[in-house]
Amino acid sequence: MSRAASARIVRQPTADQLHQFATLLIADRAANDVIMNDRRPASIVQAVQLPWCHFVLIAPNDAPALIVGGIVFVDLPHSSLCYLGALFVRKDFRGQGFGMRLFREFQLRADQRRVWFCDLARISKIRLRHSSFSVEGRYRILRLSGYAENIAIAAGRLLAAHEHADDQEPLPEVCAFPGSLDLSAIVQYDSLVSGRNRSAAFEELTKVDGFRGLAAIDDRGAVLGFGVSLHSTPTSGEENSNELRIGPLYAVNLITAVCLLRDLCATADDQVVLHVPDLAKRMLRFLGDKAACEVDTTFQRYFSRE
Asked: Which residues cross the membrane (predicted)?
């Protein structure tokens, strides 16, 4: 029997075990660059409190108190989505099947869902057989970082040029939700884009500290797009600067998306993090060439649908 086959799977980790896992990720610089969006161990420990966020850890049978790897995935009970966020095994335990055992934990949950996603950077270094993940499609996700002020200034310039051009449609009105616009209008627009009813997810999201939601509407009140941002502040004793995370952001065209970006960034003075598919080439050019955003990490997104 292999060492991984007899390893102990921890499906309900304690705070100490989670801290071990977080420390592993931070200690391994490569893993930190690849799969972590936050360098703070406390953020991982706090995330386990979210009912849709699952942590499964693994320990060798001959050292059951030693956490050597783990997997993190999101499973929204009101949705058909199951999403793999992180998979990591300590370097000296790799190549022994520990990663595969963790991946099977994700498969057990994902096999019951209609759609499941797997985002892995540097996929060639992760030894998962192709048969382990039934791939229907693949595209890249780029994690970009920049500064709110740069994005707001670049967006203002682009929108000013648009307004002065001949025969251009007027800019959409941007309003807040929930508040100026009922949340049901956002849910309806989102369902057209995603093909899923994520009303419960939006209800929960609006309750998160630092949430801000903006919608773009035309002169008839129809929704043309929406964007969400979450503002995070470092806790005491941690060195991270304030960070504004933007996404999801959906819009009918680039101008509408830029209107939303401008207003999301206008009142912030933070580092901004966005995840953008490489399919959105015009948005990538705007963020890179005009707003001085840089690509931190490139992920390969694989997806399967029953």
From this structure: none
